[in-house]
Design brief:
Length: 389
């Protein structure tokens, strides 16, 4: 995806289609990498398989696992089919929709078969023909939805919504992809809002749910949350991250949306926070739900919005400059003030008995860690390549 920037607010149709195609390719690559990561994580303890479970039907089947395996691959099928249809149109092939559907379905089978074969060498993963069937079905279903009139109408509406609400720079496609990645990362309630690591130190005194220790645990948690040596670094990190995120969003919003900039950014932040709190109520242990909205989060978000207001009216290029600095500084501060632990210890914070939790927790944690680095690259590129005015 090219990062040459255009300041035009009304690009012609061919330019718009070209930008959409580039954004679709970027989304396909990111989504494919996320699926590969979720399928093979953790990448440890490689060994030769003792048995070929790839051709053995599993003894236990849960509807939840089947549902997740199908749904997770639907976006991949839709993205593949859309790109293949554009390629077939460019090559002037007949039966373009059939070509796109078959190409996407075949890719889905090959991808699923490859990932399940690699899982044979990972003792922590279980390869089975059921996974191949469900994953391939998800790709085929996604491709079918993208080729049907209702799917094409939905995509057209999304494109019109994008043109109305977001800038027409060629960098906007990457920016929207990062915005989507940020939102997915918020679905992990064990990660503090605009921080890194875990919600709180995994100490038994804080996470213990016994009735005799509940009052003592609450007092310890409150004392820990308001400790200046804990509160101040966390609040500063959150403020820097919120300011950077708000400046980042301001760079990809449509110029007509700049008049209500704070409101639009506030809506995005509220949606992300509501998603995190809802997932906390659904997935976390009861004693940790309240920690999703810590004093550091409240102080940091408020301070970050004030920081953004101070820099919101400066020129486009210099907003990218300050956003780059804030992303770097906020990332460093969050790393220094956060608590990390192994995946098995992270899973103890959850109360979810239906499966797929390890994949979900590790993937969203990885997305949360990689987001500042990707945003740093994009913002620095915007600053360097934007013409001086």
């Amino acid at each position: 995806m090219s990062l040459a920037f255009s300041r035009s607010s009304h690009p012609n149709q061919n330019s718009t289609r070209h930008k959409i195609a580039r954004a679709s390719r970027g989304a396909l690559i990111i989504y494919l990498l996320a699926l590969i990561y979720a399928s093979l994580n953790p990448f440890v303890d490689w060994q030769f398989p003792s048995e070929l479970t790839l051709f053995t039907w599993p003894k236990y089947i849960t509807l939840f696992d089947v549902f997740i395996n199908v749904v997770a691959y639907i976006p991949l099928g839709a993205l593949l089919a859309s790109l293949l249809r554009r390629r077939a149109t460019r090559l002037r092939l007949s039966h373009r929709r059939l070509f796109a559907w078959l190409g996407a379905a075949l890719f889905g089978v090959m991808l699923s078969l490859s990932l399940e074969s690699i899982q044979l060498f990972l003792p922590n993963r279980v390869a089975s023909p059921l996974d191949i069937l469900t994953n391939s079905s998800g790709v085929a279903l996604g491709a079918l939805l993208a080729m049907l009139p209702i799917g094409r109408q939905l995509i057209a509406r999304l494109m019109r919504w994008r043109r109305r609400n977001f800038a027409h720079h060629r960098s906007t496609g990457w920016g929207l992809l990062l915005l989507g990645v940020w939102f997915v990362a918020q679905l992990n309630p064990a990660i503090p809002f605009f921080e890194a690591g875990l919600l709180s130190p995994p100490q038994p005194s804080i996470t213990d749910n016994s009735a005799s220790n509940s009052l003592s645990n609450n007092l310890i948690a409150i004392r820990y949350a308001y400790d200046p040596l804990v509160l101040l670094p966390q609040a500063v990190g959150v403020a820097l991250n919120v300011g950077a995120f708000a400046l980042f969003v301001s760079l990809i919003l449509h110029p007509l949306k700049q008049t209500r900039l704070l409101f639009n950014i506030g809506v995005i932040l509220v949606v992300g926070l509501i998603a995190k709190l809802a997932m906390a109520a659904l997935l976390l242990k009861t004693s940790l739900v309240a920690a999703s909205l810590s004093p550091a989060t409240v102080i940091g978000v408020s301070s970050g919005l004030l920081l953004f207001l101070f820099f919101a009216r400066i020129r486009y290029r210099w907003r990218a400059f300050w956003a780059t600095l804030f992303v770097f500084a906020g990332g460093v501060m969050s790393k220094l003030s956060s608590v990390y632990s192994a995946l098995d210890e992270t899973l103890r914070l959850f109360n979810w008995p239906y499966g797929q939790l390890a994949n979900f927790a590790s993937l969203t944690r990885w997305l949360n860690e990689i987001w500042p680095l990707a945003a740093l690259v994009l913002l620095a590129t915007i600053f360097i390549r934007t013409k001086r005015h």
